[in-house]
Amino acid sequence: MTEIAAVLHALGDPVRLEMVGRLADRGEPQPCGALYDDIAKSTASYHFRLLREAGLIEQYAEGGRTLNLLARAEADRRAPGVLESVLAARSARAARTDGGQ
Amino acid sequence: MTEIAAVLHALGDPVRLEMVGRLADRGEPQPCGALYDDIAKSTASYHFRLLREAGLIEQYAEGGRTLNLLARAEADRRAPGVLESVLAARSARAARTDGGQ
């Protein structure tokens, strides 16, 4: 139970949900800076760490920068089906409100 | 986006996930005390309030006690499909680990 709650907790923040949503939208590894706006780098690092610990993203170094990718399999192991449903809800809401609310 | 994050945040705590899970398992309105163990009543009240504000439960008075029910329609309006997928993940995990981990 606690593992599912940890995944939900990680997704249950607007900044982190946006990070995960952008990774899903773009479909390929992204540098950290592409995944957030208007927050300090140290704040972003905290959010990335939380996402990593919840099994939602993986990070690796390439050419001197950190790339992020969605850890769909690991997320699905911890909370089967949840990440996909959250991404679908996000898309549905974005479509309905023409860009989010 | 923030409404989906609020639903996820409300579900992203082991105590609240258990409350919602028991409501789903039992399929009918439940008194507050049936939905948690081993926490203070004031702590439980805080968790119930957060679930209510996220649109996940409704509460009403009957015969001098408060009954809780799952607000499936409202949850679905705020985060389409998410509550159902979380409940399914919870059941899947409970089955796999024979009682949750």
Automatic annotation (TrEMBL), chains A, B:
GO MF: DNA binding; DNA-binding transcription factor activity
Domain of life: Bacteria
Parts of the chain that traverse the membrane: none
HTH arsR-type domain span: 1-90
Record-linked InterPro entries: ArsR-like_HTH (IPR011991), HTH_ArsR_DNA-bd_dom (IPR001845), WH-like_DNA-bd_sf (IPR036388), WH_DNA-bd_sf (IPR036390)
Assigned keywords, A-Z: DNA-binding
Any Pfam family matching the protein: HTH_20
Name listed for the protein in its UniProt record: DNA-binding transcriptional ArsR family regulator
Protein's organism: Naumannella cuiyingiana
